[in-house]
């Protein structure tokens, strides 16, 4: 790519009369643009975080270099066309191999963005807010200021919400304008046209029968009153092409005509090998090399940072950069032949993803051609339900809460993570687990107190709605089937990611350890059983011929059978967190609350 191409793209937009700006961002594959040069800041990774931070810093007049291993794929229809399905494609996708504790390959790949825009260029584009409790919990792990009150304004500032029109509202689109931003750079909206098949209306009837108390309808970002709805996406409608387009981090912060930055340079198809350090272990720059090829070239290049180096290569790639730089767990560095600079054993630990799967039901012959019920063209029209522990186990939630909230159970879980290499010590593992367990159970304890003191009423109902969900349940229709995808939202299992060589072109060794915690397994089994219950409920009585699972599970299937099916059909939801955990170092943290 010529360095002029990015500006040429901007001039094309100007010629159309879209915007006016003074200068352009440079996006290039030319090594010479960065080699030997000094910038104020160097950022590893042009994904969501890297592009956002690069945009903000360069907007304040700092010179910024972003180095991205993947190419510019912004003109690829699989990226910009919101109805293009990227998962399973190798376009803009690392598809990392995953390994078990025994070192054997797992039967599924890990989806992760491999182009400018990172995973925002390939993800499912679903948009809704987290709960206040989830964001507030970050602060309790030794991160002052990381709470809802301080983070919510940034959610508002990032979003440019396009409210549903009257036709979309009539079709079931719900919107609460007060929980959205309207002047940001990431577009959120319902698709145009919004085609919600009749099956979704049936799901809305069936889901509360299976999950008692589920609040159906409205805006899913309004987390204090809604827990099941069709939701918005990070998309916008292109009136010229008549298509819904993806609003990725690149779309919002790099290519937008009014976001051009003379001091921002993006070097694509190059890999950051390591961070360079000066006296006092102060980052002074990076070494990097072209990404094509299977082995490093004989010559790597260096670029220098006057003010700082920022790692934003994602949960699965940032830790390997640190390890190649000599920062990490001593045994990992020694095994890879890397000289240790900083003993930081938390690097690569506490990796966490949500284990997903999907169940299917064959539609009876009488309805297979009835597009009022099923509609394979209806992308972006699922019913998304966020299920809390009381809705998942309406009669037996208390026994699960007693189990996971016990100190004995917490200690054994923490020790298991340490033994598996997923945590540094029992104190850090216990802190992380306790934070998750508290999210799962606190509302129940508060609810019991409110009923005891106030005899129920409004406060009790309010607390139930504030419960943090532990399962996401996505219900949709296909051409001749109904299907439900689901995954635990607050898994207690943890894994790890490390390098196994000093070669920056080698994939890291990722050991997800999904469903290793017994509570996660119980949640998975309950969600799988619920999928069968939904398909067998009264609203689907005449429509569903049978639900099917591979391996087959009969109507009276055991927990062991459901768990075996889940493990065989499982995939990672690619909602990775961890590996460079923000937490005090004595607990196994890697960066502090100022991201240092």
UniProtKB/TrEMBL annotation:
It comes from Lasiosphaeria hispida. FAD binds at residues 123-126, 272. One of its GO terms (molecular function) is flavin adenine dinucleotide binding. The keyword Ubl conjugation does not apply. Residues 40-355 form the Glucose-methanol-choline oxidoreductase N-terminal domain. Residues 1-24 form the signal peptide. Residues 491-596 form the Glucose-methanol-choline oxidoreductase C-terminal domain. Belongs to the GMC oxidoreductase family. SUPFAM superfamilies: FAD-linked reductases, C-terminal domain, FAD/NAD(P)-binding domain. This is GMC oxidoreductase. The keyword Flavoprotein applies. The lineage of its organism: Eukaryota, Fungi, Dikarya, Ascomycota, Pezizomycotina. Its cofactor is FAD. It comes from the Eukaryota. Keywords: FAD, Flavoprotein, Oxidoreductase, Signal. It holds the Pfam family GMC_oxred_C.
């Amino acid at each position: 790519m010529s360095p002029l191409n990015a500006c040429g793209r901007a001039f094309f937009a100007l010629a159309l009369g879209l915007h006016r700006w003074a200068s352009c961002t440079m996006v290039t594959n030319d090594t010479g643009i960065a080699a030997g040069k000094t910038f104020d800041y160097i950022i590893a990774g042009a994904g969501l975080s890297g592009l956002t931070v690069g945009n903000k810093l360069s907007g304040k007049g700092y010179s910024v270099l972003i180095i991205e291993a993947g190419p510019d794929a912004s003109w690829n229809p699989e990226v910009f066309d919101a109805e293009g399905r990227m998962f399973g494609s190798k376009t803009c996708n690392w598809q990392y191999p995953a390994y078990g504790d025994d070192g054997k390959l797992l039967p599924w790949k890990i989806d992760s963005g491999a182009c400018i825009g990172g995973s925002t260029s390939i993800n499912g584009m679903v948009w809704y807010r987290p709960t206040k409790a989830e964001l507030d919990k970050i602060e309790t792990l030794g991160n002052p200021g990381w709470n809802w009150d301080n983070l919510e304004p940034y959610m508002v500032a990032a979003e440019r919400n396009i409210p549903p029109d009257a036709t979309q509202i009539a079709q079931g689109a719900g919107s609460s304008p007060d929980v959205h931003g309207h002047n940001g750079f990431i577009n959120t909206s319902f698709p145009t046209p919004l085609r919600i098949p009749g099956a979704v209306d049936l799901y809305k009837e069936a889901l509360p029968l299976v999950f008692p108390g589920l609040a159906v309808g409205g805006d899913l970002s309004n987390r204090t009153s809604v827990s099941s709805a069709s939701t918005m996406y990070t998309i916008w409608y292109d009136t010229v092409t008549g298509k819904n387009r993806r609003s990725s981090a690149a779309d919002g912060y790099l290519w937008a005509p009014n976001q051009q930055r003379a001091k921002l340079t993006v070097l694509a198809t190059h890999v950051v090998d390591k961070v360079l350090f000066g006296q006092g272990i102060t980052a002074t720059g990076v070494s990097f090399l072209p990404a094509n090829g299977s082995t490093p070239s004989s010559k790597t290049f260096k670029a220098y940072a006057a003010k700082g180096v920022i790692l934003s290569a994602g949960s699965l790639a940032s830790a390997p950069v640190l390890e190649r730089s000599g920062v990490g767990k001593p045994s990992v560095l020694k095994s890879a032949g890397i000289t240790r600079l900083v003993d930081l054993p938390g690097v690569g630990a506490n990796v966490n993803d949500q284990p997903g799967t999907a169940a299917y039901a064959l539609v009876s012959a009488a309805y297979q051609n009835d597009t009022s019920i099923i509609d394979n063209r209806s992308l972006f029209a699922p019913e998304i339900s966020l299920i809390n522990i009381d809705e998942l186990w309406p009669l037996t939630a208390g026994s699960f809460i007693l189990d996971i909230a016990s100190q004995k159970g917490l200690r054994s879980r923490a020790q298991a993570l340490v033994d598996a290499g997923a945590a540094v010590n029992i104190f850090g593992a216990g802190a992380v687990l306790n934070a998750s367990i508290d999210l799962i159970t606190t509302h129940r304890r508060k609810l019991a107190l409110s009923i005891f003191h106030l005899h129920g009423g409004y406060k009790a109902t309010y607390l139930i709605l504030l419960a943090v969900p532990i399962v996401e349940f996505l219900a949709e229709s296909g051409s001749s089937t109904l299907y439900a995808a689901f995954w635990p939202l607050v898994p207690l299992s943890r894994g790890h990611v490390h390098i196994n060589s000093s070669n920056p072109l080698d994939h890291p060794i990722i050991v997800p350890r999904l469903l290793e915690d017994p509570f996660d397994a119980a949640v998975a089994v309950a969600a799988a059983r619920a999928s069968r219950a939904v398909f067998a409920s009264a609203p689907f009585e005449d429509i569903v011929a049978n639900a099917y699972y591979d391996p087959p599970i009969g109507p009276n299937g055991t927990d062991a059978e459901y768990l075996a099916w889940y493990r065989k059909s499982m995939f990672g939801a690619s909602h990775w967190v961890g590996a460079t955990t923000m937490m005090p170092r004595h607990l196994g943290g890697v960066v502090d609350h100022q991201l240092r």
